[in-house]
Amino acid sequence: MKDRLTILNLLCVNVCCLCCFSTISAVDAAGKEQGVHCTVEVEEVVTRYTPANNGAGPLWCYGSTVIARQGGNVYLSVIETGKNIPLLCNTRWQLWHRSADGWKLEQAEKEYRQREPCPLAVFQGGPVFLSVNPSTEPAGTKYGPCKPLVLEFDPANPAAPAKVHTPAWDDGAYFTDHSYRGFAADGANGELLLLNINAKTSEQFVSYRDSNGKWHEKGTITFPVRSCYPQVALRDGSSHVMAIGDIVEPVKEWQKLKFEKLKRKWDYVFRRLFYTYTDNIRTTGFCAPIEIDTVEKTGGHIRNFDLYIDKGGAAHLLYLKQPHQYEFIRDKYFPGEAITAHLEHVIAKDGEVLSRRTLAEKPSGPTGFEPSFGRFHISGAGKLYVIAAGTGIEKGQRTYGNFLGRIPAGKNKPKFERIGLKHPFGNFFTNTPRGGSKPSDIIDIFGIADDSPNLRYARIRIKSGRN
User: Fold this and answer.
1) Which residues have a Cβ under 8 Å from the Cβ of 6 and sit 6 or more positions away?
2) Full-prediction pTM beyond 0.85?
3) Dihedral angle at the C-alpha atoms of 15, 405, 427, 232, nearest 10 degrees?
4) Which of 34, 171, 182, 208 is deepest in the core (most CB within 10 A)?
């Protein structure tokens, strides 16, 4: 069983809103610093999570979001673990809603039929959608068949029974409790895109829902190696996918050494990053995937973070690149090389890479920001930001926190400044346009912070004259 993410126990606590203020500096294309103000308006616990011990935690579907904003309302998908329910499908989805009155659990699945978190999407001014993957087999079945569905909720009455939609798939689809699915919405045009991996062939099957509500099978995507945790984006018919290679350690010497050091049989590696797109999902299939980056030769690690499609149709890719993952492999096979980490921003269009830029890196020197996680955010004015986790200098000491930086035009790096959160997030989801949320000066964050066992939410507002 694959245990991809560290699962934290979470305690249910009700926390009042707090408001704190931090000043952020961004750098424009001319290199001038531009003051940007960031206010933390809400910081609170939503609910708790009990480990399911099935290989998937509450952030397992990190390629697709579980939180979305629709005007003044926020919707959230959380998994709940069933007590004494046998593995693997021993969780159920919960739909949470935050209005001006705070959080409310609107409804939950009747039975525990899910293994993974259920991604969420919204249409602007329309329904709320949940991608679910219930098992079709008796409880306790492992790696058994599942039936992907999409549930539709009415924002006017989110507690009402959901409409159930069955996506359309090409022949040969075989889906199990390890779905590695990607879910995206074009919130402005009212369209959906869903990917689900074929457990036998590792192809990603594609299903598309048009603005009239009709589902269409859209073939498959075959990556050079099995690739998972896809970021999926849909905008004006243009569709884009980024996914990370997910295979067993291919180098036998490294596999043997890792087992000797770690005493762990699970040994999947994430070293090759791929991207594919189609200009028009309605008429054209995805092109052959291209390799964006690789650390295959040095035994490194890549984590795919986020994907954004700008108005010109270019794809912005965000990921963390570590040329060496383990010091003991570095020491034996690459002596003298540094252990580094690089937050990378790549722009691709028409199947080609247009630019590459390192936004932050580790080590960064005595004063720089050192990244560990990140997401894009698009402001109401269309400016591109990065919300990141990592360490920076505060009062002369390097401490962990969350940071915000605006990505400038050209080759300049953003200036990352600390966000004033009492409980900084490690891994998190945001209200991304990929989930249908409208670009906004409000950043909604949901994830795991520094106070295990809590699942937290924060609302941050960007304030700037030209943000």
Assistant:
1) 57
2) yes
3) 120
4) 182
Q: Tell me: pLDDT of 2 over 70.
A: no
Q: Which tokens go with 111? A: 């039975």
pLDDT at residue 13, as a whole number:
33
For the segment 97-149, what is each residue's pLDDT rounded down to a tens digit? 999 999 999 999 999 999 999 999 999 989 999 999 999 999 999 999 999 99
Name all contacts of 245-250 with Cβ < 8 Å and 24+ positions apart.
245/269, 245/270, 245/271, 245/272, 245/273, 245/274, 246/180, 246/270
DSSP 274-331: EEEEES-TTT-PPPPPEEEEE-GGGT-EEEEEEEEE-TTSPEEEEEEEES-S-HHHHH
Check the CA dihedral 24-462-316-151 and report its sign: positive
pLDDT at 247 over 60: yes
252 phi and psi angles, rounded to 5 deg: -60, -40
Residues 428-448, buried b or exposed e (16+ Cβ, 10 A)? Answer: bbbbbbbbbbbbbbbbbbbbb
Contact between 206 and 184 under an 8 Å Cβ cutoff? The reply is no
Name 68's Cβ contacts closer than 8 Å, sequence gap at least 6. 74, 75, 120, 121, 122, 128, 431, 435, 436, 437, 444
Q: What is the DSSP letter of 252?
A: H
Of the candidates 129, 188, 137, 133, which has an alpha carbon nearest to the alpha carbon of residue 153?
A: 129
Taking 3-state DSSP, the helix, strand and coil percentages for the chain, each rounded to the nearest 5, stand at 5, 50, 50
Tokens of 113: 């039929």
CA angle 245, 427, 419 (to 5 degrees): 135
Q: How far is 130 from 138, CA to CA, in rounded Å?
A: 23
Q: Is 410 buried (19+), middle (13-18) or exposed (0-12) by CB count in 10 A?
A: exposed
What is the residue-wise DSSP string for 153-175?
E-TT-TTSPPEEE-----TT---
CATH of domain 20-463: 2.130.10.130
Query: What are the residues whose beta carbons fall under 8 Å from the beta carbon of 291, sequence distance 6 or more?
Result: 224, 272, 273, 274
Spatial neighbors of 375 by CB under 8 A, at least 6 apart, are 305, 306, 318, 386, 387, 388, 428, 429, 430, 432
The 272-278 sheet, strands edge to edge:
227-235, 238-245, 272-278, 290-294
The structure tokens listed for 158 are 């989110």
Give residue 58's Cα distance to chain centre.
12
